[in-house]
Amino acid sequence: MLGSGFIQFELQYSKTKNLSVGDVVRSGEIFAGGHVWKIYCSPHGTKKSNAGRYVSLYLRLVSKAKCVKAIFEASLLHRGGPGRAKRCTKVYPPNGISSRSRGWHEFVSRTDLESASDIESHLGGLLDRSVGTDVSFCVKGETFHAHRAILAARSPVFKAELFGPMAEATMACVTLHEIEPVVFKTLLRFVYTNSLPVDRELGDSVTDMVKHLLAAADRYALDRLKLACAQKLWDSVSVDTVADVLACAEIYNCQELKSRCIDFVMQKRISRRPC
């Protein structure tokens, strides 16, 4: 069966610093060609001889199958734009090797990733300390301070509101409706740092919070946040929740999430067919 799959596998670099050589971070399931796959990433590599200087990346076949062939292509994307820092291809499986994984021991050097982490930390510090803020947002009794230029650089909607002919452009405090304070706070944090809080900081219902955040990301045209929310919804998808997640994908135009949900449903139907 021919097929293809795509996943945006995003790691928060700063949260990988305490991992050891050989520690693995796994992606959600990828359904392609009638099989289930996962991406395995070792942020400090898999070889002790490299002393944690490289990130290792592998494609792993999760399904129990034989004679499976696939082309595994991986790209390292810059946060600031679509430019590819690294683009590689591997054929799965390697000739004469029975391993269920295929990839690179030295996919990218960790030193190549350091600068992005520093920028996120510095911008997050500006937000936390309200240094040089020039606009405030009032959300159901709570006030959040921010920087017009940073918001405009990240979101075309914020740019139109804060620098265009709209009334908000001259307001010192912009009042927002139809969004909860905790959702807007999390959105702001992502705008500045490109990262989401850990699940325990997202409230009692992580899935509900992510759905609200996805709606806000769609409202402000924050495509990277939409992708992050879509990935979180996918990570928790199950037979019981896939219909709800598919509905969210339809409403907020998350095409990749929609395709993966449909593939998930089809895969479950195939597995339930009598032999």
Task: Note down, in words, how this protein is organized.
The protein has 275 residues and is an alpha+beta fold. The protein folds into two domains: 13-114, Apoptosis, Tumor Necrosis Factor Receptor Associated Protein 2, Chain A (Sandwich); 116-269, Potassium Channel Kv1.1, Chain A (2-Layer Sandwich). 36% of the residues lie in helices and 22% in strands. The protein has eight helices and ten strands. The protein has helices at 114-129, 148-154, 156-163, 181-193, 206-219, 223-235, 242-251, 255-272; strands at 25-26, 30-32, 35-42, 54-61, 70-77, 84-92, 101-109, 135-139, 142-146, 173-176. Strands 1, 2, 3, 4 and 7 form a five-stranded antiparallel sheet that branches. The radius of gyration is 21 Å and the shape is globular.
Percentage of residues in strands: 15-25%
Radius of gyration from CA coordinates = 21 Å
User: What is the CATH architecture annotation of the largest domain?
Assistant: 2-Layer Sandwich
Which regions have little confidence, pLDDT < 50, spanning 5+ residues? 80-84
SSE string, helix = H, strand = E? EEEEEEEHEEHHEHHHHH
Oligomeric nature of the chains? single chain
